[in-house]
Structures are given as structure tokens and as C-alpha cells.
Known about the structure:
It is built from 19 helices and 2 strands. The chain has a two-stranded antiparallel sheet with strand order 1-2. It is found in: Presynaptic cell membrane. Belongs to the sodium:solute symporter (SSF) (TC 2.A.21) family.
Amino acid sequence: MAIHVEGIVAIVIFYVLILFVGIWAAWKNKNSGAAEGGDQSERIMVGGRDIGLFVGGFTMTATWVGGGYINGTAEYVYLPDYGLAWAQAPFGYALSLVVGGLFFAKPMRSRGYVTMLDPFQQLYGKRMGGLLFIPALMGEIFWSAAILSALGATLSVIVDININMSVVISAMIAIFYTLVGGLYSVAYTDVVQLFCIFLGLWISVPFALSNPAVSDISVTAKEVIYQSPWLGKIEPEDKWLWADNFCLLMLGGIPWQVYFQRVLSASSATYAQVLSFVAAFGCLVMAIPSVLIGAIGASTDWNQTSYGSLPPKDRDQSDMILPIVLQHLCPSYISFFGLGAVSAAVMSSADSSILSASSMFARNIYQLAFRQSASDREIVWVMRITIFVFGALATAMALLTGSVYGLWYLSSDLVYVIIFPQLLSVLFVKGTNTYGSVAGYIFGLLLRIGGGEPYLKLPPFIYYPGWVTQERIHHVTGDVEHFIQQRFPFKTMSMLASFLANVAFSYLTKYLFESGTFSHKYDFLDAVVSKHSKEIMDKATLVSNQESIILSELAPVKQILGASLAGTFNSEVLSDDEESSPEAFHNEN
């Protein structure tokens, strides 16, 4: 196997740059924290809540713009049966950030939550918070594994280095600077990451466009030259499937800790909204070179290139069209520069997901559910251990699991159909309780799993209207795979059913208990009868049998919070006006 020295050098340069920036940010974070006296665990999770407009704009954009985003956009534009019409990620995630900024950023940031799961535990209790942690964790881990897997494949295509070695080294670097720097390191490496993507791809595009093997992309957009036009089209029978996937991106892109850790790190609620809007614009801008590279791939006579006579789509390598274009249509020094930029970006994409998963575990599971009296130092060490554990888990899945993309697709669907309706309920619907939350969770889970998942070869047990049997041909092996395609928008339907179940069961149980139809002793979740007692988490305690309780995160937020995260609620915060609670927000509206 040939080793391309220039490619290795380019990658090493970019990796060292990312690592240097991550360590510098950790040093900066340590010095500022020592000077201002905030909790170290909170600085790791939300960066001391002092992320400014410049760094904040970049890191918010990097919520979704990374290796998976640019590779996936190029792939869908290139694929003959899809094209630009089905490359939904740029507009879907951009609108996701707009909707998040308009409706979710302000209430979450103004109440000073530390993680996305805080309002769930506050209103529904620690057990329900633990249940909601499961799909949230799955989404973060599988996302990290998927992009690490994509990185290994990309590097192996361009520089012929061992996939396992490249994945392990990339993961180790990302884990290391996240361990030492937390959100500060994630945010500052995001700045470098986006510069790398932007410069690396834009430098490559003119060379690829001018290659003699590439036809005019304005012609191939509408005419059949080497394959069907890259603009693509939406067939009438696929319009509901297209709409379902678009809603999944637009609304399902909101309830992620990777998004809310950026929102909650902003220096104010207004800043959090502005950063969301800036990031939405950034998502669209960063997708342009990927769209062009996908169009270039669809406009290329591959027989004239060093790639060979068979195009990537006939070798089942459509998912690697971006690195293939860089390698075979650009001069070697340009392709290696582009590769170094992309690989560094992918590596940097994994860090925020790993930090998000460890933040939720350390705060919402370990501290609030099991060790309410844990010291700040203890929480920091739990975070460091879980950053390493979750990073190792994502790396192992990237190396050992062939269906990592299928797991990511399914888990992202579960985030959409389970967590999004729960977030709607907890922030905007007055009167929901734990019984409704459990019902919504079960409804969403069953309806989504019932639809099956072709990527995991998971057959459906619910056949929604309009289902068809499709076949997928593996060109390399010649195998033909048959699967059920659900053309009904069952994902969005599952989300709506979950939301309605939450509201309906909440009001039903509230009526049954308060009217005396059910005895108070059957309120085993303490969600209705004991709603206002000190054992419950919305007026609520994270430490039982304690009269004087503090949860400084729910009071008006300072940029650096000095109060211990181990506390719970304060009598002022829990006064009748309840300015910081979800129910107070409902009353204000």
C-alpha cells in the first residue's frame, strides 16, 4: 500500500493546528476561571457563559457544519436518483437554527439551564430525565461514531493509510483537548475547523471545475450527459417522504445538546438568538462548495481520470465523492490541502458530541439523580472519565460496527419523535406532567420503531399507507437487497402523536386524581397530588429532605456562576411568581 507523504504532511499540519488551538483555549479557560472564581464544572459545560459574538457565531455554525455535513451534501447532489432537490441538510438545518433561535433559545438561556435535560428533570422528575437521556445519548454517540467512520474512509481513499490508525489518532486528539479544555476548546477549534473547510474546499473547486474531464455544470444541471441532471427532482409519489425528511431536519435538529450547549454558553439570551440566526446563514454559505463538488462529480467523464472507467456510483463509493473529486480532479498539492482541511474538520466535529454526552451524564444522571451532594471537583472528574469513555465507545463503534450510519439515522429519528415533543410540552404547554411524558415517550417510540429502518435491516411491524417494496443493488458484489419504504410521513406523525399523547394523558391524570376518581395513593410518580411538595422536581427538589435548597441556574444568570451545581432550589426561585420555572413562562404568555 502506497503512502502519500505529501498527504500525511498536510494532515499532520492541520491536526497539530487543531491540537494547538485546543490546548491554548484550555489554558485560556483555566486562567480566566482562576481569576473569576467560577465553578470549573460549569466552565467545562457552558464555557462560563461568556462566549462572544465572533467565536459564538463560528461554534454555533459548527453545530451541524462538519465532516458529515459537507460529505453528505456532496453525496446527495451527486447521486443520480436524488440530486440537489434531495440535498435537504443545508436548508433543513439552517431553518432548524432559525426556529431554535426564534422560539427555544431565549427561554432556555434566560432560565440559566446548564444542559438540555434540566427542564425535563425540573418538571417531570429525575427518573423521566434518565429516560430522555437515553435517546439523547444515543444520538450523540452514534453521530460521533458515524463521522469518525467517514473520516477513516476519506483518509484511506486519498492517502492510502490504515483506516483504523487514522480513526484512533483523530479520536485521541479530539478527546485530549476536550478533556483539558471543555467547551472553550470545542468553541475555539470550531473557528479553525470552519476556516479549514471554507479555505480548503474553495481552493479546490476552481481546479476541479477547470479539469478537462468535467463538463459545464450549468448544462449537466438540466441535461443528461453522463448521468441524470444533478438538480434532481421530486416525484409526485415521493412528496410526503420528502416533506417528512425535511421536517425531521428542521424540527429534529433543535433538541440536541450540541445545539443547546452553544445556546447556554452565550453571554445573554439575546446573544443566543442572534448566534442562532448567524449560524443559519453560515450553514447555507458553508454548503455551497459541497454542492459544487457534488455537481462536478455528476458532470465528470471518469474514464478520462485516474479514477478509472467506472464512476463512483457504480463502485458504491458515492458517499466519498468529495474526497474522490479532490484526489482525481485536482493537482496533488491542492487535493492534499483540501483533504487536510476536511479531515481536521471531521475530527473537530466529534468533540462537541462527546462533550455533550458527558455533560448530560455528569449533571443530569450522576449529580442530580444519584449524588446530589457531589462536590464540583467530583463532577469535573466524572466529566473527564465520561469524555474518555464515550469517546472510546464512539471510536470502537466506528471501527467495529458496519451499520453505524443506520444507528445514527434511527437515533436521530428518536430524538425527533421523542425529545422534540417533550421539549415543546415542557416549555410551552402548561399543565403537562410525568404521566403524560411517559405516555408520549412510549407512543413515539412504538410508532417510529414500528415503521422499520432499512439501514439496520429492521423490518416494520406497522405498515403505513403508501408503503412499497424497493430494491437496492450493491454494484460491487451484485447483491440485490429488498426493503420496505414507508412513503407516508410516519416520522412526523409519530412526533405529533407523541406530543398529543403527552398533553392528553397529562390532563386526564390530573383530572382523575384531582376529582377523586383515583385515590391519591395511586399517584406513584408523585406527578399530580404531590406536585407542589418538596419531593418533586418542578417546585421541586433535587435533594430530598432539605428545607433550604438552591438551584442557582434557575435564578437570573450571571456570566460566571459561582454557586455550587450540587445545590437545588432556592426559596426565592420557588416563590409564587416563579419567574424562572417552565410554568411561569406559560403564565407569561
